[in-house]
Amino acid sequence: MQRFFLFLIAVIGLVLPACNNSQTSAPHKIAIINPSKGLNSVVEGFMAGMKARGYDEGKNVTYFYYHDISMAEVDGAIAEIMTKDVDLVYSLTTPATLKAKKAFAETGIPLLFAPVFSPVDAGVVDSLAHSGGNLTGLKLRGSTAKALGWLQAVVPGVKRIFVPVHRADSASCMTLEDLQAAADQMGIELVVAEIATPQDLAKVLADIPAKVDGLWLTCSHMLFTHVHDIVAAATARRLPVAATAHIPGSGVLVSYGDANVRIGEQISHMADRILLGASARDMPIETADFLLTINLKTANRLGITIPDEILRQVDIFER
């Protein structure tokens, strides 16, 4: 019996320090770079997903969140992150990810990205199977043709669509490429307006061409930031807005593609794997879940009745 108690005391002596080290270990540090207000709900989804996986802010994880910044301010955010000794960097949008990739390439800090429309075409990664660096994330490209089909199903009379395109954003340009290919097959004409600045956007929204039947929101950090202005201008002309991304509360009538909150939830499982020791460079690029969203409040405002057979296929309703 005495030997048993001595053995028990020895085991307790080993276990208690281990438990104490676990409780006092430093929290994980994650830096988040988000230059688009329209993507704030992605980060909300990410943090909710991390919490569901046991990461409690202020306890075992600390976030350095850089948001409501312009693309020109991303470099300053990156410089500040370099001083934080972070375990992981999470970047949103293609332009911010390209900056982060270059900056952190030689640091050993893993980079996670989402949303990025088409990471291979944008030069973010070498391939979907092998990124070619210490980074991984989610791609969005692939839903545009079906999204256009859903707009045509919801608004059968659509023949001409107004499309503002942010030429400095490769995702916006690739959205246009995919949209043009689908529109050609469906007999739909695109009326394209090239923009470079928010001021350009304001001008084209004030002068939306006559005889268009809808407006398409291409995938662009700048357009997402000003999505409420875009929807307001379209609604004033009683035009439906369609997109390949669901931005909660934006007023977009129909979207088919990635959903902001769901992107955040998806990327959180990749962050968890990295923090548990997986190598970002060995993790293939994943594809975002594609969901159909209908905004019933917008439909009612525009006087559009959604057929029951469409409503039964909707993944997300906004009311």
What is the overall shape? globular
Q: What's the main sheet like?
A: 7 strands, mixed
Q: Gap between N and C termini, in Å?
A: 70 Å
CATH superfamily of the largest domain: Response regulator
DSSP strand content: 15-25%
Structure explained in plain terms:
By secondary structure, the protein is of the alpha/beta class. It is built from twelve helices and 13 strands. The protein has two domains: 25-139 and 260-287, Rossmann fold; 144-259 and 292-318, Rossmann fold. It has helices spanning 2-24, 40-52, 74-81, 94-104, 144-154, 170-186, 198-206, 221-225, 227-236, 260-275, 296-302, 308-311, and strands at 28-34, 61-67, 88-91, 111-116, 135-139, 160-166, 189-195, 214-217, 241-246, 254-259, 286-287, 291-295, 316-318. A seven-stranded mixed beta sheet has the order 7-6-8-9-10-12-13. A six-stranded parallel beta sheet has the order 2-1-3-4-5-11, sandwiched between helices. It is globular and about 60 Å long.
